[in-house]
Amino acid sequence: MLSIILLSVFGIVLLYLGFLKSRAVLLPAALLALLIALGAEFTEWNKSYLYFGDMLLMSNQAILFVGIVLVSAFMVVSLSGDFLEDEAAQPAEYYAILLFSIVGAVMMIAYENLIMLFVGVEILSVSMYILTGSDKRNLRSNEAALKYLLMGSFATGILLFGMALLYGAAGSFTLTDIKGYIALSQGQPSLLLYMGVLLVLIGMLFKVSAAPFHFWTPDVYEGAPTLFTAFMSTVVKTAGFAALLQLLSVSFGAIYGFWWVILAAITGLTLLIGNLTAAYQNSFKRMMAYSSISHAGYLLIGLVALGQQSKPALVFYSLAYSISTIAAFGILLVVAKQRTVDGRPDDTYTAFNGLSRQNPLLAFVLAVSMLSLAGIPLTAGFWGKFMVFSAAVDKGMIWILVLAVLMSAVGIYYYFRVVIAMYFREGTSTPIQVAPFYRFVLIAATVITIVLGLVPGLFQDLL
């Protein structure tokens, strides 16, 4: 709860700091706010408290996911120095909206009542609609925001209707009460509950870009400013899967036989569409969009194979995926800024041609990120996939494991296209300069990725 209060207060303070003539204070203030919120969150470690009329539950599981969200947000904000240089931008507003959106993410992660989940989803979603269309001079950004708003509104309506059906069946919005109702029904709850479960799943699967509810993702990721695309593909996805894990493990574990088949079919479809479509993209941002869809499929495996290994697998995978994705988008921000096509930043694969000779550090960081996302050994991404696949093996879901391994092979193809462009293609000889703090964030992301890949047990031992 402390993080919610602190982030809300700091968001308002940042708006007032925007009135200052100097912008130099905004970025340090936003980073300090995130660090304080992160420290405050872990003061509740190994404690379990209910807040806001028993609507919010802070547990170790919630603290882990909130920690990943705050670390991801810290890295994204660290890469936002260009906002301070753009006279037309209003960085105070952007930073405030980012902090407010994290409040929604925390509510989605730690909810104990479906009303709190709905409020969190709306806070996060409305913030993302605004940030997606924040580049008002770019028609693609405006179009992406409109698409996201319209499709997100339909998904929210479906989610809310599903919650209403769950309330009609169980007589409560509280997760433990819904669990109690299912237990009292002796495994035969009413049809209303099954319909409610289905609609709530549809609404939440839209938020995490699972197929066939993924159609908004490529256009929104491509049209939104790259910085906010990085935020959207990590923070929103982490919060969405944490919410799904909480819902399925607490309330619907007793009717696992009903929803696992539906979720397994969606998982297979998500893996196929995400990986196969990413393989023939020429735009790096669209490739990362479909890559995000494919990683939603891998994370869904952890939910389909719900068991003791699901929580550590989802936590580790979310951390590994978030760090690698932010590093990749951070390098795209630098490269696309210095290479343009028809006056617009170049976000195609050709933008990375010869990067290893222009800036070896950027090439190495991006190579490690691509290797981690592909699940190559000695990176954090490999162990993330290994843990998710192990959960599937424990449940005897060999067919979904075979499909996931085959799709991982397809993923190696399109991730290695970036590596080949950097190291084996000829590019311009103009060196690419990077600010010292920007460089530090990218190096830190690479070090974390490699350390978690070499010593994966270190993360679990620390916890």
Automatic annotation (TrEMBL):
This is NADH-quinone oxidoreductase subunit N. Coiled coil: none annotated. NDH-1 is composed of 14 different subunits. Subunits NuoA, H, J, K, L, M, N constitute the membrane sector of the complex. Keywords: Cell membrane, Membrane, NAD, Quinone, Translocase, Transmembrane, Transmembrane helix, Transport. Belongs to the complex I subunit 2 family. Residues 113-408 form the NADH:quinone oxidoreductase/Mrp antiporter transmembrane domain. The lineage of its organism: Bacteria, Pseudomonadati, Bacteroidota, Cytophagia, Cytophagales. It comes from Larkinella insperata. It is a multi-pass membrane protein. NDH-1 shuttles electrons from NADH, via FMN and iron-sulfur (Fe-S) centers, to quinones in the respiratory chain. The immediate electron acceptor for the enzyme in this species is believed to be a menaquinone. Couples the redox reaction to proton translocation (for every two electrons transferred, four hydrogen ions are translocated across the cytoplasmic membrane), and thus conserves the redox energy in a proton gradient.
